[in-house]
From TrEMBL:
GO terms for molecular function: 2-oxoglutarate-dependent dioxygenase activity; iron ion binding. Pfam families: PhyH. This is Phytanoyl-CoA dioxygenase family protein. It comes from Spirosoma profusum. Its cofactor is Fe(2+). Keywords: Dioxygenase, Oxidoreductase.
Length: 341
């Protein structure tokens, strides 16, 4: 998401961002499914985890290739989602006890938008424009949801590689974020090896600032920030320019903007280059509780972004990995109720 990881992006840029100017993804390193002639039926026949899913893997992969996203209906157990949100409420109610990082997109926090939750007033935490960053590091159930079999199996097939969970965000209210594509901001060593999950923690209302997206937009030409397709401190154009380009290019291509009105337990998975954003919150009383996770492949994401030169400590669930934050070891899995679930 475009403005969500500013504090952490600088580390990624220094260590992962290609130095040369890039205008498109490197075709040679694209996930196989994004290449011409990808035979999905043949792949699925050989895929060991294709059976026993709550969805038809081949059907979903064909939809993904054409549209740049899929929806996995009722894929996450509701009791898991309730447990996750109960932990978020505990985090808010007793924030002075915790170190979880929070991003605050309010004018008064412009000079320091990312802070430990213990330093942020409860009134602010309960309001809009707040993102709870990487809470999966603190939560066992957060990890289990992030690496749920239904998510991991699909992304494993997309990458044809082991799945690595990179980072997460929790929202209480809609983000109201302008149109963007994730690869420009969320960086892996192979930029096209990136995907995301938007997990509904409650039914989504049309007036709560729902997610919107342009099906098929993952195939449009990349935006040039003036120094390539990645936004950084050398870019001469900005996220507003990016949003205008995406909206106009999608409209010119005849791509229809769609609104995500899914139910609690549904999951939207999307391609690195799907153009999407957050609609206006028309009813300020409505929440839009959601859990957003970003993923890469084992080939493209080998180190925790806080420690790019050391071998990561891994947690493995459903044959996928998430790395332990080496700078917050004392906060790892402090919400442990999920071990029983």
């Amino acid at each position: 998401m475009s403005s969500l990881f500013d504090k952490l992006k600088s580390v990624a840029k220094r260590t992962l961002m290609p130095e040369k100017t890039v205008k498109e993804f490197d075709y040679a390193t694209l996930p196989w499914i994004d290449k011409e002639g990808a035979d999905i039926d043949a792949f699925v026949k050989q895929h060991p985890a294709a059976k026993g899913l709550s969805y038809d893997l081949a059907e979903k992969m064909k939809f993904w290739k054409k549209n740049g996203y899929v929806i996995l209906e009722q894929s996450i157990q509701k009791e898991w989602l309730d447990q996750l949100w109960n932990e978020v409420e505990e985090l808010i109610d007793h924030h002075e006890k915790y170190e979880t990082l929070i991003r605050i997109d309010l004018p008064e926090y412009q000079s320091k938008p990312v802070q430990p939750i213990k330093d942020v007033p409860k009134k602010v935490l309960n309001g809009p424009y707040i993102k709870f960053m990487d809470f999966h590091e603190n939560s066992v159930i957060g990890k289990k949801i992030m690496l749920h079999k239904n998510i991991v199996t699909f992304l494993q097939a997309v990458f044809n590689d082991k799945v690595i969970a990179m980072q997460s965000l929790l929202f209480k209210y809609g983000s109201q974020q302008a149109t963007h594509q994730d690869f420009a901001y969320v960086v892996s060593e192979i930029p096209s090896h990136l995907a995301a999950a938007w997990i509904a923690l409650e039914d989504v209302h049309i007036d709560s600032g729902p997610l919107f997206y342009y099906p098929g937009s993952h195939t449009i030409g990349k935006f040039d920030f003036g120094n390539g397709i990645f936004f950084n401190n050398k870019s001469t154009l900005n996220p507003n320019d990016f949003a205008k380009y995406l909206d106009q290019t999608c409209q010119n291509a005849g791509l229809k903007k769609e609104t995500l009105l899914i139910k609690k337990g549904d999951v939207l998975l999307w391609h690195a280059a799907l153009a999407h954003g957050g609609d206006e919150i028309r009813n300020k009383a409505l929440t839009r509780k959601s859990y957003v996770c970003h993923y890469s492949s084992d080939s493209a994401f080998k180190h925790h972004r806080q420690s790019p030169n050391t071998e990561p400590i891994r947690r493995t669930i459903n044959e996928a990995d998430v790395f332990v934050n080496p700078q917050m070891l004392d906060q790892e899995d402090i919400f442990a109720e999920g071990k029983k679930m």
